[in-house]
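Task 17 of the worksheet. Students: predict the tertiary structure of the chain below and write it out as structure tokens. Keep your answer in the requested format; marks are given for formatting as well as content.
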Amino acid sequence: MCILKVQNLTKKIGRRTLVNQLSFDARKGEILGLLGPNGAGKSTTIKMIVGLISKTSGTVTINKKDTSKDFKEAMKHIGVIVENPDLYKFLSGYDNLLHFSRMTPNIPKERLDVVVSLVGLEKSIHNKVSTYSLGMKQRLALAIALVHKPALLILDEPTNGLDPQGIRDLRFHLKQLATDENVAIVVSSHLMAEMEMMCDRIAIIDKGDLIGIHDIKDITKEQIQAVQFEVDRTDLAIPLLQKSVIGEEIITNQNVITIKISKEHIPEICDTLAKNGVNVYGVQTIKTTLEDKFIEMTGDEVHND
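Model answer:
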């Protein structure tokens, strides 16, 4: 079921177009990633969705409520974490959660206990927030965003500043939330490897344009992109391979030869090399990754640091 529907969303400032005609949706029980380099338009898109900045044109529908026509009702269905969590450091985690929960009428105490458990803060929820690591603050903000049972959860660059353990913890809890609470989750990031592990689908954004939307499973199921052969005689192997795989790119790095072929050709190539006096010490397949797909579609790279 579609919880968020974005159609032709555009943001212009003067003659400059920050976001150009973006259209995508987010569904119950899935994590949708907005992937792109810094300055691609991800944060601008999120801020327009949640009403922090105005849009130039386009529509945003949350749980069938148009934000232009029924903004307050639409916002009842979302939880948002944009930039650094705004918490009261002198209060305990639980008191922060209790304070923010009072913004929504009739939140039972049992719900507070549920969200604390969901984000794994049971042991530290009564400690002061000033003692929390950045990862713990992020999880407390997540609990606050979840307390009113939103249908949609939106997080803008939630892994910024987190150490590797904090990133792993966040990934685990978001996946659990999508499954256990059946929440539609939208996450923006420039960390490609992390998005590949975290998300079900990826919307690639570059220079304000939506380049494409891909299912992570489809990317990982794609054909082998290339095969590497470790040999003892590249001087003999390359001429043989040029005859066997006409028109395919052959790359040599010391005694390793990389060819853009499918794995079905491996036995034939190994046999040809062996019969002509070339010893093959190893064969490794290289699969298409999200990074390969991004570079293929945009011609750019998103760095993982």
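Marker's comment: The chain has a mean pLDDT of 88. The CA atoms of residues 224 and 264 lie 10 Å apart.
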